[in-house]
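Homework help board

Subject: predicted structure for assignment chain

Our instructor gave us this sequence and asked us to write out the predicted structure in token form, then describe one feature. I got the tokens but I'm not sure how to describe them. Can anyone check?
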Amino acid sequence: MKEEYYYLDASNRQQGPVNKDVLIQCGITKTTLVWKQGMREWQPAAKFPELTHLLPEGIAGAPIPPVNPTPPPYIPTTSSYQKTGNSMVSKPDNYLVWAILATVICCLPAGIVAIVYSSKVDNMWNMGDYEGARQAAQSAKNWSFASLGLGAAFYISIFFLSFLGALV
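My token output:
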């Protein structure tokens, strides 16, 4: 699969997605702002090693236009990255697997709380509450590991009590 690029035209409008060959044919210069998936922000085309040898010099001293473009349209709101301010924020892990394992193997009450927090992470992220999603993920993690710790303490204490009972 070829990488797809977005660029800002002379009117500061977002264009794309296009592959590298088409991008060069669109008349971009080294100062044209370009973005591709996985990047945090728009960069001049000269910062792309795969493009620099293909680009014309452009107008000497041409300023890079100030820009605050929206993320490219093909990134859905359920993406694992969202643009907030000037940077991309990655979606936190929901720790659902840990919460389920902790519930089944270790401590039912604490594990259920962990599952509840885990289920909130994706919903909050999709609604745009990035900080709430991060806090719910942290709570799910804490409750999962607390449940695992309580379960481990319970099983260890049972082992020692039965060992002591065998000695008596």
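Reply (TA_rk): Your tokens look well-formed. For the description, you could write something like this. The chain has five helices and six strands. That's the kind of observation they're looking for.
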